[in-house]
Every structure is written in structure tokens, then in C-alpha cells.
Design brief:
The chain has 12 helices and 8 strands. It is of the alpha/beta class. The protein folds into 2 domains: 97 residues, Up-down Bundle (Four Helix Bundle (Hemerythrin (Met), subunit A)); 191 residues, P-loop containing nucleotide triphosphate hydrolases (Rossmann fold, 3-Layer(aba) Sandwich).
């Protein structure tokens, strides 16, 4: 690794550490106190660890799996002290995430498959989760990686949504396809992909209206948009990215459940992790829904979007000796 690559890697890790600080102070602080002075792993300790993880928004099902793994590991390996226990927790949580996601490999760069041009990403999620902001950050990162990018403003129900994606397009210096307020969202998607094909654009990112996940009619429209995309670019969308607000804790679980039932979500982006102590939700959602967390949002800046790396995330969350 060269000097500049190493420097970038350290800066990225520092951003991750800073972004998870509130979660670390809450979740890891409690775990560290539970670890302190421990020489054995007994049922009382595991009960305490279980409570900490559940109240840290890791989720009941995932917490039980983590506890089972720790219990089995402790029975197999000789336990020495609290440092070893912390390493054991990091290793087992990382292994759990690797085993229970569709794609266990961690990407390190913003890249698209060479076989897909344009590579089409449809972005879904309820209002207020940071969906349009994530689109703007994605556009910036893909352009920074050397790709041409086009955005489609298919959230035609709110004037503010069109204005917001237009602004992010200016900030990322990429074109935005839009129509009048109240236009057919599928028509916007059609125009965006038609323009992307004609102009040989590498990446097309389509915004959608902030769906209320308990409204079936609005969810059905996502299927219509997908059908229209497929007519222009066979196989599109290549990625359906669900954006979830990490600060909402268990509500994010419910949104993931509803959206994954209504449409074929392929990847997740968890936002606003820098402003919450509920970062444990990333572990639970990644594990329970078997849908890979691809991106995490750690701030409002245009560069504050990272590709999710399981090992780095868990080490940053729980600490590493």
C-alpha cells in the first residue's frame, strides 16, 4: 500500500470512529464495564451481555445468535481475560455478518460491473431517512471514481424533493432529468434511462417518492417503475437500494421488513449514524434480512458516505486491543 493510499485508509477509519462515537460511548462503554475483571464466562455475564446488545438496538434474534456463538466459543477456547473476550466478540460478530449476508465480500471502492451500462440504481425509502442526500453522495463518489452519472427525479409528489435532488446534482456536477410536479414517476424513470442510453452514461440513479411503508398502493407503484426501466434497459434496475435512518432504531427494522416484502431490495444504506447511539441497528438489520449493508452515512458532507466494511465497523464499534 502506497503512502497516499495508507493515509486515505487512516482518514477513512478515523471518520468511521468519529461517526460511531455516540454508539461506542453507549454500547461499548457498557460492554467494557461488563468485561472488566472477568476471568470466566458464565450465565450471569451472558445475560448481562444479552441485555446490553438488545437495548443497543442490535435486535433480539441477532443478539441471541451472538450469545450462542460466544457461549460455544468460550466452551471451546480457553478464556484468559477481558481483552480476549472483547476480541472474541469482535470476531464472532464479524463472522456472523459474513455468514448471513448475500454478498459476504467487502468492497473497498465505488465500482460498477463492466457488463452493465448504464448501471441502474433505484433508490427507495420513506421521507426523512436521508434518501436524496444519499443519492447526491453516491453521484459524487461515482463521478470521483471516473464514471459519468445521471440522476432521475422520480419523486414527483413533493416540489421540495425535486429541488433537493436538483441541488445535489449541482453539487456533484451531474445532470438531473426531471418533469413537472405530479408527473408520472415511471415516465421520469423512462426519460432518465432513455437519456442515459443515448448519452452512453455509466451510472443512472433514480430517486423515488418517500413511500409510507404501510401503504400498499404506493408500494405497488415501485413495481410499475421497475417494469418501465426494464423496457429501456433490460435487467434494470440492477440495484434496488433501500435507505434507512439508523437513528430510528427498531423502526428501521420495520421499514426494512416492509420494503423487502414489497420489492426486491438488493442493498441497504444506513444513514445518520454520526448523530445517534443506535448504531447497533446495522448489525441486526444486516443479519436478519440477509440483505447486505452496502453504504453507511456518517455526516452531511458530500464525502460522508462510506462503503460498509464489516470488520472495520465491528472493530470501531466494540474497540480493538
Amino acid at each position: 500500500m502506497g503512502f497516499f493510499s495508507s493515509l486515505f485508509s487512516r482518514e477513512k477509519k478515523q471518520t468511521l470512529d468519529n461517526g460511531l462515537q455516540k454508539t461506542k460511548e453507549g454500547l461499548f462503554g457498557r460492554i467494557k464495564r461488563a468485561f472488566f475483571g472477568r476471568k470466566t464466562i458464565d450465565d450471569d455475564f451472558l445475560d448481562e451481555l444479552e441485555e446490553i446488545l438488545i437495548t443497543g438496538d442490535v435486535g433480539v434474534e441477532t443478539t441471541i445468535r451472538i450469545i450462542d456463538r460466544i457461549r460455544e466459543r468460550a466452551a471451546r477456547d480457553r478464556y484468559v481475560g477481558d481483552g480476549e473476550l472483547n476480541d472474541m466478540l469482535v470476531e464472532e460478530v464479524t463472522a456472523l455478518l459474513a455468514e448471513n449476508t448475500i454478498n459476504s465480500a467487502d468492497a473497498s471502492e465505488f465500482r460498477i460491473p463492466q457488463s452493465s451500462k448504464p448501471y441502474v440504481i433505484m433508490v427507495v425509502g420513506v421521507n426523512g431517512v436521508g434518501k436524496t442526500t444519499t443519492i447526491g453522495k453516491l453521484a459524487y463518489q461515482y463521478k470521483k471514481a471516473g464514471y459519468t452519472v445521471m440522476l432521475g427525479a422520480a419523486d414527483t409528489f413533493r416540489a421540495a424533493a425535486v429541488e433537493q435532488i436538483d441541488e445535489w446534482g449541482r453539487r456533484a456536477d451531474v445532470p438531473v432529468v426531471k418533469q413537472q410536479l405530479g408527473s408520472d414517476a415511471a415516465a421520469v424513470a423512462f426519460d432518465t434511462l432513455s437519456s442515459a442510453v443515448a448519452n452512453q452514461v455509466d451510472v443512472a440513479i433514480i430517486d423515488t417518492a418517500g413511500r409510507l411503508h404501510n401503504k400498499k398502493g404506493l408500494m405497488d407503484e415501485l413495481s410499475k417503475i421497475k417494469r418501465v426501466m426494464d423496457k429501456v434497459v433490460p435487467g434494470a434496475p440492477h440495484e434496488v437500494l433501500l435507505v434507512l435512518d439508523g437513528s430510528t432504531g427498531q423502526n428501521a427494522f420495520e421499514q426494512a421488513r416492509q420494503f423487502s416484502a414489497a420489492t426486491q431490495v438488493t442493498d441497504l444504506a444506513i444513514t445518520k449514524l454520526d448523530g445517534t447511539a443506535k448504531g447497533g441497528v446495522v448489525i441486526g438489520i444486516s443479519d436478519q434480512f440477509k440483505i447486505p449493508v452496502k453504504y453507511i452515512g456518517l455526516g452531511e458532507g458530500i464525502e460522508d458516505l462510506q462503503i460498509f466494511n464489516k470488520r472495520e465497523f465491528v472493530e470501531s464499534l466494540f474497540g480493538k486491543r
